[in-house]
Amino acid sequence: MTRRLQLILAIAACLIPVPCFAVPTIEAFPPDTQLNDSTPTTILVRVVGHGAMVLGKEVGGARVTITDVVTKQILATGIQQGAAGDQNQIMRTPRLMEEPHYSSRPAAAFTATVNLLHPTLVEVTAEGPLAHPASSQRASTTVWLIPGQNLTSDGIVLHLYGYIVQIEHPRQGEPLIAKDDVTLRASVRTLSGALVRPHGDWDSRKLHIYGELMIGERVLERLQLFYNNDRASFEAPFFVPPTQDAPDGMTLRVIVSDPASGNFGVSQATYPVLSERLRKNPSSEPR
Questions:
Q1: What would the mean pLDDT of 237-241 be, rounded to a whole number?
Q2: What is the distance in angstroms between the CA of the first residue and the CA of the last residue of the chain?
Q3: Hey, what CATH class is 37-160 in?
Q4: Class of the CATH-defined domain 163-277
Q5: Where in the chain is the domain with CATH 2.60.40.10?
Q6: Whole-model pTM?
Q7: Higher model confidence: residue 162 or residue 86?
Q8: Comparing C-alpha atoms, which of 25, 24, 157, 168 is closest to residue 80?
Q9: Exposed e or buried b for every residue in 171-180, given b needs 16+ CB within 10 A?
């Protein structure tokens, strides 16, 4: 090989790129201590009657409990307090899906602030209306809570299904005289406390509302109830059965059902039946 060729090969070797390998540094990132601190997180829960308004002070509100699903620890509990909300806004105002439904005007809610270290799966439970335990319903849902990301506006909305049905006359346990003509009178309201009546936002014409006269578990008669506007109640006359037919008394049951919405309500009361010989006067039981 000539000297000139050797020189050319030496120059070519110098022009070939040599890979350069990066040497990692030993320096470590300092830990961000704030990432491991608990963060206050606010959660708002609103309990409403299905197809109705918010459960507020008129019906005793609702009890709300927030529980950590994994540890079973109760993170917050309390009573939803406040007003039932604006009926026009809730029941009649059209809105887009993302627009607030219940919080555009003041309405009852339960608000709690919990300290979270990490995303936490919780069960939110509601029970009410507290002022009407016979009509009380319960609902729950599970949601993730993320530290520092508050749930406000409408918050988590829990729907309770049913009606508040109350037999106003005759009163529970009131002795009835056999063969007397008596009027059954009952009031019907949504779980938020609004009256159910014909032509209203909660139209009784769309519901099945009736009474049953029972002895033991046996239904003797089904009673068709009619709305009395003066008393804001539903009424039907019935005859008290003879004492020999009802030695242990009788029961009145009122049933309200709306299969379209899934709302149902029931109330019943029992009464002793006394002999007609004990009647103080021949007039019928006052209505």
A1: 97
A2: 132
A3: mainly beta
A4: mainly beta
A5: 163-277
A6: 0.82
A7: 162
A8: 157
A9: eeeeebbbeb
